[in-house]
Predict the structure.
Amino acid sequence: MNEIRYVQMSDRKFWYCLDQHLSETEFVNKVRDKQGYVLLEEDKPVGLLRYNLFWDNTPFCTMLCIAPGFRGRHYGRKLMEYWENDIKSQGYGMALTSTRADEDAQHFYRKLGYKDCGGFVIDIQGYKQPMELLLIKAML
């Protein structure tokens, strides 16, 4: 049995097993603002999704991760669909996400109906990475 719920403070240890990019302060904000989700399989956390508001008005999925050993079970799709339904119920009309151009996630997002809408290159020393692709989807 699967369950998806908002992230809670008690998820901290699990969260940081998959997400080393989020500061402690922002983790607390995700819990407070209900901008993160945990997917559970038989009461065991196995996946997460977090987002913020781009331009302070557009939901932007900033992290989707499934624990190794649990991938390939459509949990990423379930988390995305759950998030999309949640933001639609809050009145948002579109959603954004991004992925590096050298990652396969772009194909996953396109299968979910996201389309390319731009990108950017980070070439600053210490932060360099391949092009970041932006993807967008209408929440109809």
About this structure: The two ends are 28 Å apart (CA to CA). Residues 3 and 57 are 28 Å apart (CA to CA). The longest helix spans residues 75-89.
